Task: inverse folding
C-alpha cells in the first residue's frame, strides 16, 4: 500500500449542472453516491426520463453547463434540512424555493427559464423546464442520481493535473470547472489514471473505493464558473497536450466510512 496524496476538499452538486457546494465531511456507503450529489436535475422539454424505471440519459437533456453556459450566472445553495434551494440571481437578490412542494419546484423552473431566455438561444414556451428529483430508492428498489454515468460513482480530481494543463496552455484553470467530489493534493499530474483496477482507502479507517476509469471531459469544462463565459477549449487542450480528454477518475465505494479534508489517500 502506498500513499497517493491528501484530500484537500469535498464538493457536492445537489442540482445537476449548478453550483458546487463545499462540505466539511461526507459519509459514504457501499455502492452509494456522494451525499446530496445530483439529487435534482432541470429537464429541458421532454427528456424521456421515467422516474418509475430510472436510467441514466444524456446530460444534454438537462439545463447544464454543457448546453447552457448561463447556468453559471446563478449561485445556488441547497438546504437539506428544509429541503429548500437558495438562488442568488444576477442582481444579487436571494430567492428561496421549497423543493418539497409542487409550487416551489414550479417557481424554481420558471425562475431559471427567465435567466436562460435572457442569455441563451432558448425558448421556454417550446422547451419548458421541469425539476426532476431522484426517485426514492425504497420505491424503485435501487439507488439513482442524475450522474453522467450509470453506477454509484464518486469522482476524484488530481489538482496537479489541472495545474499542469494550465501551465502548458498559459491559463489559470479553476478546478471547479471539472465538478468533482473529492479534490486531491500531492499527486503527480495524471498519476491517478494508472490506478484503474486498484483500490483507494481514505485515512486509517475511512471509506474504500475501487477505481473504475478516468473521466472523459466534455464541453461543460469550457465554461468559466465565475463569468459564465466559454473562455477555454479544455477538451482540445487535453488532447493537444496529452493525447486524451481525460482528467480525474471515477471510483465505486466498496467500504463505507467518513471522508474529511486532510485524510491521506492510500492506494493498493
Result:
Amino acid at each position: 500500500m502506498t500513499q497517493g496524496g491528501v484530500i484537500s476538499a469535498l464538493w457536492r452538486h445537489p442540482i445537476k449542472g449548478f453550483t458546487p457546494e463545499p462540505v466539511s465531511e461526507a459519509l459514504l456507503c457501499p455502492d452509494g453516491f456522494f451525499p446530496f450529489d445530483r439529487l435534482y436535475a432541470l429537464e429541458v422539454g421532454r427528456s424521456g426520463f421515467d422516474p418509475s424505471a430510472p436510467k441514466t440519459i444524456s446530460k444534454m437533456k438537462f439545463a447544464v453547463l454543457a448546453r447552457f453556459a448561463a447556468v453559471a450566472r446563478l449561485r445556488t445553495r441547497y438546504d437539506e434540512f428544509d429541503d429548500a434551494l437558495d438562488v442568488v440571481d444576477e442582481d444579487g437578490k436571494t430567492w428561496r424555493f421549497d423543493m418539497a412542494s409542487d409550487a416551489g419546484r414550479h417557481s424554481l423552473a420558471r425562475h431559471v427559464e427567465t435567466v436562460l431566455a435572457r442569455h441563451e438561444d432558448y425558448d421556454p414556451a417550446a422547451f419548458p423546464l421541469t425539476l426532476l428529483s431522484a426517485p426514492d430508492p425504497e420505491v424503485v428498489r435501487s439507488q439513482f442520481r442524475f450522474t453522467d454515468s450509470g453506477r454509484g460513482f464518486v469522482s476524484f480530481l488530481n489538482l496537479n493535473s489541472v495545474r499542469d494543463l494550465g501551465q502548458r496552455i498559459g491559463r489559470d484553470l479553476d478546478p471547479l470547472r471539472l465538478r468533482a467530489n473529492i479534490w486531491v493534493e500531492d499527486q503527480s499530474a495524471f498519476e491517478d489514471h494508472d490506478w484503474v483496477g486498484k483500490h483507494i482507502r481514505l485515512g486509517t479507517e475511512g471509506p474504500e473505493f475501487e477505481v473504475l476509469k478516468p473521466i472523459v471531459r466534455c464541453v461543460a469544462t469550457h465554461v468559466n464558473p465565475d463569468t459564465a463565459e466559454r473562455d477555454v477549449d479544455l477538451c482540445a487542450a487535453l488532447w493537444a497536450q496529452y493525447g486524451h480528454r481525460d482528467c480525474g477518475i471515477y471510483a465505486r465505494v466498496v467500504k463505507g466510512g467518513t471522508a474529511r479534508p486532510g485524510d491521506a489517500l492510500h492506494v493498493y
Observations:
- The chain is about 15% helix and 30% strand.
